[in-house]
């Protein structure tokens, strides 16, 4: 519900480029209907963004396979085969993606769909079954991409361990801890300390601070723990900077790079991140 939320393809392109200029190595991409702002999985919009961002910079593009809540699963993974990206997200289990309690905090709605979309999550399960995870991984690996496993609670680490044991997932794995959803990991440092990860894994942390605004920022506390972080927008409100809404994800990147520098941590370039995450390279994508 921020006036700065990028919605149109042009806005999303400029946002990714700004993130690169601020020192970010990866941009995580969701797309929306440019007229209504409703999240979707429009493949033509994905391609428009991918083509133009690649033309302008070498940032790694990580495309979502989550997308709009309720999107058919076959639509969610289609971007992996269409664009053959370096990196794509993969939710590591089903969950109650509860956002309904936020609706009461909003006094004015910009679009007609927003209120019903949030309130509908009181009775909604975000499905990511073992069958669909297996099918997604088959498609992702077949197209040379790497999955970014999004971990919402401790049980999902067990899900991933099972996928590794059965040879369905491949090492080394890249985990993204997503914290702050109502019934999932709280955005606290002890979450990262509590959560064991598979050997040879690469770890980053993400959160949704507008959902749990009372909690300290785990990006700051998690840097010494993992060395990596993904400043992340909630579904509506960007991270705040001293109580002021961020105007861009680039603002968040600049802040976390400054803090990392004070901790003696140097940000990776996109090419260095490709080596860290064992990605195939920007010359191997289909855009």
Please render the helix and strand layout as text.
Blueprint: H1 9-22, E1 26-29, E2 31-32, E3 39-40, H2 43-56, E4 60-63, H3 73-83, E5 87-91, H4 113-119, H5 130-142, E6 146-151, H6 154-165, E7 174-179, H7 189-194, E8 202-207, H8 218-226, E9 240-241, E10 244-245, H9 249-262, H10 270-277
Parallel strand pairs: 1-4, 4-5, 5-6, 6-7, 7-8
Antiparallel strand pairs: 2-3, 9-10
Helix pairs in contact: 1-2, 1-9, 2-3, 3-5
Account of the 3D structure:
With 287 residues, the protein is an alpha/beta fold. It has a single domain, classed as TIM Barrel. The protein has 10 helices and 10 strands. The protein has a 6-stranded parallel β-sheet with strand order 1-4-5-6-7-8. β9 (240-241) and β10 form a beta hairpin. α1 runs parallel beside α2, α1 runs parallel beside α9 and α3 runs parallel beside α5 (130-142). The protein is globular and about 45 Å long. Mean pLDDT is 85; it is low at 208-216 and 231-238.
Keywords:
287 residues; alpha/beta; TIM Barrel; 6-stranded parallel beta sheet; 38% helix; globular
Give the count of structural domains.
1
How would the global form be characterised? globular
Strand content: 5-15%
Structural class: alpha/beta
Secondary-structure element order, N to C: HEEEHEHEHHEHEHEHEEHH
For the largest beta-sheet, the strand count, sense and barrel status come to: 6 strands, parallel
């Amino acid at each position: 519900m921020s006036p700065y939320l990028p919605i149109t393809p042009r806005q999303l392109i400029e946002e990714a480029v700004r993130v690169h200029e601020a020192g970010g190595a990866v941009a995580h991409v969701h797309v929306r209907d440019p007229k209504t702002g409703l999240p979707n999985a429009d493949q033509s919009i994905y391609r428009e963004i991918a083509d133009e961002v690649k033309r302008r910079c070498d940032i790694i593009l990580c495309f979502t396979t989550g997308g709009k809540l309720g999107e058919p699963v076959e639509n969610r993974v289609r971007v992996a085969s269409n664009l053959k990206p370096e990196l794509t997200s993969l939710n590591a289990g089903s969950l109650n993606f509860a956002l309904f309690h936020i609706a009461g905090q909003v006094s004015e709605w910009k679009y007609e769909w927003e209120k019903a979309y949030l309130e509908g999550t009181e009775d909604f399960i975000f499905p990511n079954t073992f069958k669909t995870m297996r099918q997604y991984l088959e498609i992702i690996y077949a197209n040379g991409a790497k999955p970014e496993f999004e971990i919402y609670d401790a049980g999902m680490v067990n899900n991933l361990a099972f996928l590794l044991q059965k040879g369905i997932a491949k090492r080394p794995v890249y985990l993204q801890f997503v914290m702050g959803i109502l019934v999932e990991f709280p955005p606290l440092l002890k979450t990262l300390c509590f959560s064991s990860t598979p050997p040879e894994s690469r770890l980053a942390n993400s959160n949704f601070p507008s959902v749990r605004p009372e909690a300290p920022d785990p990006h700051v506390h998690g840097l010494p723990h993992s060395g990596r972080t993904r400043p992340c927008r909630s579904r509506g409100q960007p991270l705040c900077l001293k109580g002021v809404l961020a105007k861009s994800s680039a603002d968040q990147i600049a802040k976390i790079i400054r803090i990392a520098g004070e901790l003696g941590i140097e940000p990776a370039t996109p090419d260095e991140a490709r080596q860290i995450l064992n990605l195939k390279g920007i010359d191997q994508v289909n855009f």
